[in-house]
Design goal:
Elements: H1 2-29, E1 48-50, E2 56-65, E3 71-78, E4 87-92, E5 96-98, E6 107-109, H2 113-118, E7 131-135, E8 143-146, H3 161-166
Parallel strand pairs: 1-6, 4-7
Antiparallel strand pairs: 1-2, 2-3, 3-4, 5-6, 7-8
């Protein structure tokens, strides 16, 4: 009898240990989450982008991010009708305006339609993206240009001020 009770205790201990181990594994695998209300954060892929007059500009099809994961440009599918004649362009992130507090969550841009039509096509994901960025030309109107490449300095670096006196 004592042998049978000892076996039952061992089986119980084994079941308890297995249950505790399973509970610990489930707790360790559970992700930590937080809530983001739609009036704070909103999904944007596939969303329509509207012009300042409420006209449809295009649809967000991708987001280009930098090494830190911060958005730098939005890739828009623009123009065309029923998929015919459409083009894909990349616009600087600052050209888009988000309104998560609005129940319809519109995405708008103040880029003029003629600039969107003139934007270079984004079609080679292995090459540097030609991203249309806002600028203010001398006449004061909002415009866009292709993302410039930083210029190389043409003047040689100046000598330290103490170096000239040391040779005299």
């Amino acid at each position: 009898m004592a042998g049978k009770m000892g076996q039952e205790m061992t089986v119980r201990r084994g079941r308890i240990a297995s249950g505790l181990l399973a509970a610990l594994l489930l707790m360790a695998a559970a992700p930590i989450t937080t809530s983001m209300a739609p009036d704070i954060a909103m999904p944007i892929l596939g969303r329509t982008v509207y012009g300042s007059a409420g006209d449809t500009v295009g649809r967000v099809v991708d987001v280009l991010v930098d090494a830190a994961g911060l958005p730098q440009a939005a890739v828009l599918d623009v123009g065309g009708f029923l998929g015919v004649g459409n083009r894909v362009i990349a616009v600087h992130w600052s050209t888009l305006h988000f309104h998560p507090e609005d129940k319809d969550h519109p995405i708008t841009t103040d880029m003029p339609a003629d600039e969107i039509k003139a934007a270079p096509e984004y079609n080679d994901t292995t090459a540097p993206a030609q991203v249309v960025v806002p600028h203010t030309p001398p006449n004061g109107t909002l415009g866009t240009v292709a993302m410039p490449v930083p210029a190389k300095p043409t003047d040689p670096p100046a000598a330290p001020t103490g170096a000239a006196n040391a040779t005299k």
